[in-house]
Amino acid sequence: MAEAGGKAYSTVDADEVARFAAMAEDWWNPRGRMRPLHKLNPLRLGYIRDRACAQFARDGKALDCLKGLRILDVGCGGGILSEPLARLGASVVGIDPAEANIAAARIHAEKSGIAVDYRTTTAEALADAGERFEIVLAMEVVEHVADVGLFMRRCAEMVKPGGLMITATLNRTLKSFALAIVGAEYILRWLPRGTHRWDKFVTPDELEAAMESGGLRVIDEAGVIYNPLADEWRRADDMDVNYMLAAERPR
After folding, report:
1. Within 10 A of 64 (CB to CB), how many other CB atoms are there?
2. Tens of pLDDT along 37-49?
């Protein structure tokens, strides 16, 4: 783990961990406080599958299209993304610094008969241990860490040559403040108030720079928008609020 002033330094934000740990029992309730993530999950899963299949020459229509790929889900929470990735054949390691989240994830995986390696730990600890993966995911996590640059570099360390890092987060724009905070937290009440802090949102340029500092090269980007008529999230060119970046480590 990196040293700061002679002490081990972590990018974990303790207040953010406590906030999400308090919601642990709600992770698998599609109508509860995690409803927005459940609605977003099919789009996230589809993007990860498509980028992985393109990168590793897989058939995206195959039920086990991710077989043989080792995937790290950083900030996995209750495992709502880890489980479907495992169902597609991936060997998934899901990590979260909140013990309550990992406990919820393990219980659900056991009930579902899905094998996922869940651990209460941090990206820094795994990087220090020399862990390596074909794909590293940081989905809806970056906006909650204490040091984005360091977090991305430590995650990038774990990407094997030819592998991918995929990140989803929120852009820091006036539009994102209006929609992701005022709209989602105060008007529509999709999320508990205080879930996000606008000053911790990250622009695509900032995120790309952080990825490049870790030796990665951005190869794809996509905006994510909500269609209220269909009540679903869709990929788009508009990256003003939600967006995803995929980067590779050159061979």
Report:
1. 12
2. 899 999 999 999 9
Please state, as a whole number, how many other Cβ atoms lie within 10 Å of the Cβ of residue 223: 17
Express each pLDDT in 92-113 by its tens digit: 999 999 998 999 999 999 999 9
The residues with which 159 forms a beta bridge, in sequence order, are: 133
**Structural tokens at position 102:** 């990992």
| CA–CA separation, 197 and 74 (whole Å) | 20
For 236, which DSSP code?
A: E
| CA 116 to each of CA 45, 87, 140, 159, 230: distance values in angstroms, whole numbers, following the listed order | 16, 10, 20, 19, 32
Residues 6 or more apart in contact with residue 57 via CB below 8 angstroms: none
DSSP single-letter state for residue 47? H
Return the structure tokens found at 90: 């991936």
- Torsion over CA of 168, 225, 204 and 21, rounded to 10 degrees? -30
H or E segment at 109? Answer: helix 99-112
Strand, coil or helix: what is 85? helix
Distance CA 156, CA 222 (A): 20
Contacts 24+ apart (CB under 8 A), 114-117: 114/83, 114/86, 114/87, 115/86, 116/79, 116/82, 116/83, 116/86, 116/92, 117/91, 117/92, 117/93
Tokens at residue 148, please? Answer: 């984005």
Quote the pTM value: 0.87
